[in-house]
Each structure stands twice: as structure tokens, then as C-alpha cells.
Specification:
This protein is of the alpha/beta class. The protein has a single domain, classed as NAD(P)-binding Rossmann-like Domain (Rossmann fold), CATH 3.40.50.720. Helices cover about 40% and strands about 20% of the residues. The protein has nine helices and nine strands. Helix 1 links the parallel strand 1 and strand 2. Helix 2 packs across helix 3 and helix 3 packs parallel to helix 5. The radius of gyration is 21 Å and the shape is globular.
Length: about 260
């Protein structure tokens, strides 16, 4: 069974992967905060900014999935810098020293959507650092430019959402990371987009399909239209509005939905 270490394992993406990979890989979950009780795998508490802590965690590990890069698109340089720069370098360097087979780096489509933000710039810097490690040290590094990761109930999966054009459902996200773990050893470096299926994708998905064999299974537009039928959707709001009108007309203020 392949040994896989996930940094930032307590985050949303890390929790999805640990659940999906339970029983498939020998998991080590690495995070600066305590992992939730439902975590599946060996739990290690450590900081990616401390290279010695990272080194100690990589004994016998084949693949590192680097998610502990935190932050969001609104963060300043001071907020982004520690894990984005120091932490990412430490993971690449320690993985190289430990002779890991591969590192999978969680990049972001924000490089394309909002390239002028510190968060986006830090991702681009990390992709370039990854290319140098792949070229000079022989470490296989796959960079995944992830879309807006969301479960099926997330508001981003709704008609009119500004993020709908680059949504990656949790199901497709787990499938994408699995493809990256299982990609041929001959794949030394690459940057690949990760979004779910749509009629006119905003990001180039053909290289991801060709190199990693990733085929998204979720159609975001179908899911967005389906969301209208949920109680929180437009159809649900319309039904509640009609019920309130009916109650007012018939004087039944305590009528129950």
C-alpha cells in the first residue's frame, strides 16, 4: 500500500481526501492544529514552516500532498508569506532529501482569475520553484490549479454564482488528486487545471485529461439548476412565498410549512 502524507490535513480538502483514501493508501495526516477525531490515518502534529518537523514526518513516505499553504484571495503579503514561501520550500526540500517519489502541490485557478493578489502570486512562485526542483533534483512535482472546491450544497453551485465557471466539486477533486498520485513515474513536472465538467470550460482541461487521465464526473450547470429545487433555492423560496400569501388570504397565521 502506497504511503501518502497530507499536509494541512485538518482543512476541508484534507478531510475529504482522508475519507476518500481510507483503506486505499497508508495515510499520514500532518497539520499544525489537532486533526478532528474522525480523521482516518496516522496523525502528526507539526508545522510546515519547521523543516526539521517536516523531515521527521516523511520517513518511508512515497507521495506528499501539500495542502498546508492556507490563506485566501483577500490576504496580505504578511498573511500569505509564512506558509506560502517558507512552508512550501521546506516541503519540497524535505521531500527531495527523503527521496519521496512525488509531491502534489495544491495551486489555484486564482492565478488566472486574480493574478495581482499576493495569494495568486505566491502560488505562481511555488509552481516555478517546483519546476526547478523537478529539473535539478529529479523530484516529481505535479501542480494542480484547483477551482473553487465545493460540496453539492455549497452556494457557489447555484445559478448566477460568480464562481460557477471554475467550480471543482469535492467528488471530482478527490478523483483529480487520486489521478495525480497514480500518474506514471515518468511524469516529472506539470501544471494542470482542476474544474468540474461544463459545456464551455473557462480553463484548459485537455492537458489534465491527457497527462493525468482525469475525467470530471460532475456537470456544474446541471447541479446549479438542480439546486433551484432545494428548499434554499429559488423554487423553494417561491413555494414559501405562495404559502405565506395563502395564509394571509385565509387568515391562517399559524399554518405550518
Amino acid at each position: 500500500m502506497k504511503k501518502v502524507l497530507i499536509t494541512g490535513a485538518s482543512g476541508k480538502v484534507g478531510r475529504v481526501l482522508s475519507r476518500t483514501w481510507n483503506g486505499t493508501y497508508d495515510l499520514t495526516l500532518f497539520d499544525v492544529v489537532q486533526s478532528p477525531p474522525t480523521s482516518r490515518g496516522r496523525v502528526l502534529r507539526g508545522d510546515v514552516n519547521d523543516i526539521n518537523s517536516v523531515r521527521d514526518s516523511l520517513q518511508g513516505v512515497s507521495v506528499v500532498v501539500h495542502l498546508a499553504i492556507g490563506g485566501n484571495i483577500e490576504d496580505s503579503w504578511e498573511q500569505v508569506a509564512p506558509t506560502a514561501f517558507t512552508g512550501t520550500w521546506a516541503v519540497f526540500q524535505a521531500a527531495c532529501e527523503a527521496r519521496c517519489e512525488r509531491v502534489i502541490f495544491a495551486s489555484s485557478v486564482m492565478i488566472d482569475v486574480a493574478p495581482n493578489r499576493p495569494y495568486s502570486a505566491s502560488k505562481l512562485w511555488a509552481e516555478n520553484l517546483a519546476s526547478r526542483y523537478a529539473e535539478l533534483a529529479g523530484l516529481s512535482i505535479i501542480c494542480l490549479r484547483l477551482g473553487a472546491c465545493a460540496d453539492y450544497s455549497d452556494p457557489v453551485l447555484s445559478i448566477g454564482s460568480r464562481q460557477l465557471s471554475h467550480v471543482l466539486t469535492y467528488t471530482d477533486m478527490a478523483r483529480l488528486f487520486t489521478c495525480a498520485v497514480e500518474a506514471p513515474a515518468s511524469l516529472r513536472y506539470g501544471v494542470y487545471y482542476g474544474i468540474s465538467n461544463m459545456k464551455h470550460p473557462r480553463m484548459p482541461m485537455m492537458p489534465t485529461r491527457d497527462a493525468l487521465g482525469f475525467q470530471p464526473g460532475d456537470d456544474v450547470h446541471a447541479l446549479a439548476w438542480k439546486s433551484l429545487l432545494r428548499p434554499a433555492g429559488l423554487a423553494g423560496k417561491a413555494r414559501r412565498g405562495l404559502r405565506k400569501t395563502w395564509r394571509r388570504l385565509h387568515g391562517e397565521d399559524d399554518w405550518v410549512d
